[in-house]
User: Fold 3-phosphoshikimate 1-carboxyvinyltransferase from Sporolactobacillus shoreicorticis.
Amino acid sequence: MKTLRTKQQQGLQGTLEVLGDKSISHRSIIFGAISSGDTEITHFLPSEDCLRTMQAFKDMGVSIERAKDHVLVHGVGLNGLRQPKHSLNMGNSGTTTRLMLGLLSGQPFTTELFGDQSLSRRPMKRVTEPLSQLGSRFKVTGDGRLPITVYGSTNLNPVDYRLPVASAQVKSALILAGLCANGTSTIIEKQQTRDHTELMLRAFGGEIEKQGLTLKVAGKPRLIGQLIRVPGDLSSAAFFIAAATLVPGSAITLHNVGLNPTRTGFLQTLRQMGANITVQSRSAYAEPSGDLLIQNAPLHAIVLTSDDIPSVIDELPLIALLATQAEGTTKITGAEELRVKETDRITVVAAELRKLGAEITELPDGMIIQGGTRLAPQETDQVDSHGDHRIGMMLAVAALLVTGNLALANESAINISYPDFFADLNQLIPTRRTAL
Assistant:
């Protein structure tokens, strides 16, 4: 149980460099492992999820050295992975699982993947079914969840596949399987999603062409190890951006935040709500980044539909919190994907914020949020992450608006993506009171 810092009178102040991007950290390990030569990774995110990806490749014979956020991967090439001596533990990492399903489809051995209780509830057929079109074979539980056995093959066929849903993870799994196929695969997205896999594949020397929503991936490339500088994770920075926007008198600077255009939907959404966010400097590498200045600002309600959701899917719990403080009524639809995250995030967000007096109506694919709500504990002074890292961090931000005591149950879930979250939040709170 974690006692949360509650209502701030002075506002958040100071500067911070958030931890490395989770999506890019995962992919840097994957591409480093299947490349020839060494890959050096700086500002790597040493979260539980990313360490699961690292351990999986160690279990398949890849030598990896890590000192804090600096990683050296001694690549073995696309065909150099070895069959692990035991089943691979995915922990709570859906990204590791879905991307590994694609890559392991094209390896000359059989592998079993399993995860924790939460991950084992999450659907995987959306990945295994399209992968089967390349000739991939899987043994899954009756409803398509973990544990899953992957029967790898070095004779995969190229695929021509149109994605029925907007999913960067499914797309990435197909790209990784396509690298192992005999020929060029064509993948057509329903909507533009995060393109970290495409950018990194090009950086390592792979051949991938993009025209509109159509990707063409050449099989059997020779990838070469690279130097990867991981930018700060915008999805992690989002919690501090929201906090500074909401707490009166706040003005903070976040250094080296990833500004990939496929990831900046949260910034665009907050600006539509009236947030005061300024990009002070930019840098261009394989992934663009920059420094952000965020100042407290009054907000107004917005409407988000299915066209908006892919670019803000991870930040929707935060948007719901922001909407409770905005003027007017916010409506979110087209977000049914939230129901199959680490938790059912529609139900959990509504239930936990209602404990603080929020007025939220659940929809099958979203929620309606009444703004202008003064948050205060109702019948309990305890909120719960339900084992979901993003819910836990969202509630810690909500606590900054609450007068009185508030405790967070299952706070350890935050370690899945941001083990230093509370320490970093403390840096921005100008007070001598006891630290979080």
About this structure: The first strand starts at residue 2 and ends at 3.
